[in-house]
Write a structure and sequence with these properties.
Rossmann fold, about 20% strand, globular, five-stranded parallel β-sheet, alpha/beta, binds 1,3,4-trihydroxy-5-OXO-cyclohexanecarboxylic acid
């Protein structure tokens, strides 16, 4: 069972980017925690980060070929990208949206997600644990389908 893990714009800067908001772990730290969890669950991951909307759309489309679900932190595109939402709808794979910060406690423009209405669910506010909780939730959802 393989899952696509997608990280959106500016998440490559984790560790140095606003650590008070996003924590001190780097993206590499998060990815290795995800790989450890995947080994425990017995699933495989394909992990991709891009600052570009088009590259994220391409990765979502490609996931249709060999993935059973998508774990995505669309970052700022959460609040703006119809293209990412449409790509997720088009491939029809179960998708879980995650955020390090609690977007509902922050600026009003972060309260809206264009992705969550077509996702299985959203996990936010738990720092890097949001990703681990998200992977477990996605795995259980797909396994119990
Ligand atoms: C984020 C929240 C978004 O609002 C923001 O644009 C990000 C990171 C998070 O993980 O908390 O880049 O997705």
């Amino acid at each position: 069972m393989k899952f696509l893990i997608l990280h959106g714009p500016n998440l490559n800067l984790l560790g140095v980017r606003e650590p008070g908001v996003y924590g001190s772990k780097t993206l590499a730290d998060i990815n290795s925690s995800l790989e450890e969890l995947a080994a425990v669950l017995g699933c495989e991951l394909s992990i991709f980060q891009s600052n570009g909307e088009g590259a994220l759309v391409d990765a979502i489309q490609a996931a249709a070929l060999d993935c059973r679900g998508i774990l995505i932190n669309p970052a700022a595109y959460t609040h703006t990208s119809i293209a990412i939402r449409d790509a997720l709808s088009a491939v029809g794979l179960p998708c879980v949206e995650v955020h390090l910060s609690n977007i509902h406690r922050r600026e009003e423009f972060r309260h809206t997600s264009l992705v969550v209405p077509i996702a299985v669910g959203q996990i936010c506010g738990f720092g890097h644990d949001s990703y681990l909780l998200g992977l477990r939730a996605l795995y259980n959802h797909v396994k119990n389908r």
